[in-house]
Amino acid sequence: MAKGDDALARKRNRVRRKRMRSSENAVSARVAAIIANKRRRKSGKRRGCEGMCFSLPTPDDPFNERHGKKRKGEESADDTEDAADLAKDGNPKKKDANTKKQPPAKAGAKAKSKAIRERAAETEEDRVDFDRPSKFLVVCLNAIRDAMTAEDGGGGSIHGAGDWGVELWRSCSAPAPSDVLDTSGSCSTMEQTAWLVSTACDIVARKERLGMVVSCPFLLYLVPSQEKAAQVRSICKPLKPLGIHSVSLHPGASVEHQISGLKTCEPEFLIATPERLLELVSLKAIDISSVSMLVIDGLKCFLDLNVSEKIFSIREAISGNPHITIFTDPSDKNIATIAKNLLRGKITKLSINDSVSSRSAFVTQHVHFCPSEELKTSKVKEILEQILRSHAKKSSKVLLVAASNKKAQLLSSSLKLENCTVTDDSQGNSFTICSSVGLMNVLVKDRENLAMSDVEEFEIVLVVDLPPSVDEYVEILTGVARRTIGGEVHSIFSNTDAPIAKPLAELLANCSQVVPEFLKKL
User: Fold this and answer.
1) pTM (2 d.p.)
2) Which pLDDT score is estimated for 463?
3) Hey, do 135-353 and 359-520 end up sharing a CATH topology, with the first three levels equal?
4) Which fold, 359-520?
5) pLDDT tens-place string over residues 277-335
6) What pLDDT, in 10s, does the model give residues 381-417?
7) CA–CA distance from 403 to each of 410, 441, 464 (Å)?
8) I need a surface site. Which of 330, 384, 468, 480 has the fewest CB within 10 A?
9) What is 135-353's CATH topology?
10) What are the residue ranges of helices labelled H in 264-306?
11) Domain DEAD/DEAH-box helicase, which positions (predicted)?
């Protein structure tokens, strides 16, 4: 049987290698390299850059002594571009055809272990589009969805929480991020956790692309129980192939086992119960001082378990100002006080469900009775004086909502007393009330020209003329104080508002607010 061309070529190569290894035909390594280079050139299998380019002197190597080669500790610019492509494509396993294969110990190394690269180019944060999620965020969400679908078929609803997730991603990823307070329920859902950890992955990838060193752990996720820790860990597990390693710390495992595990890895995400975490921190098994994101999942559960002081201890152990996300049930009034002590900066309130009680959490509603329309102006002055006394030694912003532009102008002119100074406003509907007890900035708007962006910036809103439908009142109520924890909505109820008395009373009862006696009688 005739031999093929491949078999003949292998035979010729064996003979050639045997001839080269013989003592009489042995050559030096330099000559062997020249011969091998000549053979590659004749066969057309040389490297793409061989013989086609030359290196130029650089400020680091002015005499070109290194011939364009980098030192061992330096990193090529191509590696920087590859890391950027990985952050975009979300596939860290994909390598170029000419990339040298790394040993197993180095193949899983993160970009955080590389030297800090100085880049004089424009940073990516100036070019981030905050109107839509990044590609890597979608890759992380799809990885979690596929894993959850394979387990129990429940991963298909992750993208259903897209509106909530995009708002969360925008709040966390903005150049000036704001803390997040979610009042949807006692703890986060699977969809909310998936969006949260994917957002953290996206932030890590962007920081690594910019050459920044990412601290470990980057995300600290506090849970009230071992069962919740296992649930969050299962959601984070599909992110491991993308370069994000997570560790769960809870009383279900021994301290010695967890200490030995922490010595062998540096997790980006740390899921822990407060008791076990503080125990490991006291033993110096882990350092949480450089945590960048802190998640408190179930603040009311922690309060019921009497571990709220441990939450504050963990917060004090973190240096700097980490981004904080809190999931809680707003039914307990003490939650607002604890949340104010934890969230010290600008916040964004979110809710994944459409219930009015969740969307208007921590907003107090007051309904005042006025028998006639003629007495509303004096009633408004009385309410403003009450607000001034209740917010003594504090500058307050109050929005007055009137039925029409004409009523808004009349109300604005009638409220300008001797102790009021008009600010720079072309229409004259914005003024300041100066008093010995405090300062109040008042803005008068009509319902026709009222935008929700105007309502969100105010902690106190006074609805002078109730709308004919409770739905319009709900729209104002759910838009108040979106950037702060607490808020107030005052409304004046007159005899002409009798048709909405019953639905208004039901709304107050559903939101756990005090229902006035005059509404019950109507």
Assistant:
1) 0.71
2) 93
3) yes
4) Rossmann fold (3.40.50)
5) 999 999 999 999 999 999 999 999 999 999 999 999 999 999 988 999 999 998 888 89
6) 889 888 888 886 677 888 989 888 888 888 877 776 5
7) 11, 20, 8
8) 468
9) Rossmann fold (3.40.50)
10) 274-282, 299-304
11) 217-319
CA distance 382 to 499: 25
pLDDT given for residue 239 in this prediction: 93
**Regions in the chain scoring below 50 on pLDDT:** 46, 48, 50-52, 75-127, 424, 426
For the chain, give the number of residues. Answer: 522
Residues 6+ apart with CB under 8 A from 375: none
Residue type (1 letter), 150: A
Cα distance between residue 195 and residue 183, in whole Å? 16
Domain boundary assignment for the chain: 135-353, 359-520
b/e 414-443 (16+ beta carbons within 10 angstroms → b): ebeeeeeeeeeeeeebbbebeeeebebebb
Is residue 428 within 8 A of residue 409, CB to CB? The reply is yes
CA 391 remoteness from chain centre: 32
Q: Is 274 exposed, middle or buried (0-12, 13-18, 19+ CB in 10 A)?
A: buried
For residue 8, how many other CB atoms are within 10 A of its CB? 11
